[in-house]
Amino acid sequence: MVQVVRTTKELQQIVKDTKKAGKTIGLVPTMGALHEGHGSLIAAARKENDFVIVSDFVNPTQFAPTEDLAAYPRTFAHDCELAEQMGADVLFLPSPKEMYPSEDMTWVEVTGRITQVLCGRTRPIHFRGVATVVTKLFHLAQPDRAYFGQKDAQQAEVLRRMVKDLFFPLEIREMPIVREADGLAKSSRNVYLKPAERKAALVLSKSLFAAQKAFEAGERSTQKLTDGTRAMIAAEPMSDIDYVEMHALPELTPAHGTVDCPHLLAVAVRFGTTRLIDNVILDPSK
Ligand code: PAF
After folding, report:
1. Relative to the CA of 62, which ligand 1 atom is closest?
2. pLDDT tens digits for 108-132?
3. Average pLDDT in the 22-39 region?
4. Are 188 and 31 spatial neighbours (Cβ–Cβ below 8 Å)?
């Protein structure tokens, strides 16, 4: 039975007891509205750790005032069911006041190109909010491993860098993107899509898969692979492109011109008012 915990104090006591018993802890940070993508993270955490904590907190500090904080889907009863089904031990459901008790803030900010490209350009405060709340969660849950999805590949890179820079004694585990049967990447924001937008949004996975196919057939030009993806998306009349870009991994350094090491091909596109992201990793060693 999953235990629902609402206070930091209660969570800290559980973590203390768990550590004392010599158990390893897996943490799955989420903003709730859980879907199969989150399910795969919880399943991986269950497999690799003795104790699994899932946090479910719509973090206000990673949303700009113009973004969808108020509208963000909140499905606590369903989240409890899924967390339980996937074998979580604790579902941490704090209030904003519990996570941010004072208006005076301590921020954690990863600076430089890694947070300035891709989503960092149109969402300048986003990664500071993510790094701050994830730091709080790491201190509270003291995980041995923390689980994130490749769909938010930039987030995973930023958090890996934060873990390295701040000497957090834990491993970031990045899990593959989970997709609908027709290819659309699972996302809590998919519920916003009107039927015609949902259909149009399939161009994201189609264009990325086409790039992957071209790459597998031997195309190595970062320019050609990026341009091909952008052209396919732009041909969809309902799409409004935020970015279609390639960056080298790890740490999102500038693309090399030739895909001679793992590169991230990432897209962010609006369909109506809904902004979706998706990506593929092109890895010449595979
Ligand atoms: O990926 C998310 O859902 C959020 O950015 C995270 C990591 C839970 C921080 O609020």
Report:
1. 10
2. 999 999 999 999 999 999 999 999 9
3. 98
4. yes
Cβ of residue 59 lying under 6 Å from some atom of ligand 1: yes
For tokens 């149109």, the residue is 122
> In angstroms, rounded to a whole number, what is the distance separating the alpha carbons of residues 108 and 134?
9
Q: Which residue has the tokens 């909010």?
A: 129
Q: Please, are residues 182 and 202 in contact by the beta-carbon 8 Å criterion? A: yes
Among 27, 28, 31, say which to mutate for ligand 1: greatest number of ligand atoms within 8 Å of CB: 31
Mean per-residue pLDDT of the chain: 98
Which residues are known to be catalytic? Answer: 38
In what helix (H) or strand (E) does residue 201 lie, and over which residues does it extend?
none
Edge-to-edge strand list for the sheet holding 239-248: 253-254, 239-248, 263-271, 274-282
Nearest of 118, 130, 154, 115 to residue 30 by alpha carbon: 130
What's the CA angle centered on 143, arms 141 and 148, to 5 degrees?
A: 100
Structure confidence by residue, pLDDT tens digits, 220-268: 999 999 999 999 999 999 999 999 999 999 999 999 999 999 999 999 9
Report the pLDDT averaged over residues 105-110. Answer: 97
Question: Ligand 1: distance of its center to the CA of 228 in Å?
Answer: 30
Question: Residue 29 CA: which ligand 1 atom is closest?
Answer: 8
pLDDT at residue 236 in the model: 98
Alpha carbon 216 to its chain's center: 26
**130 C-beta closer than 6 A to ligand 1:** yes
Q: pTM for the whole thing? A: 0.97
Distance from Cα 128 to the centre of ligand 1, integer Å: 12
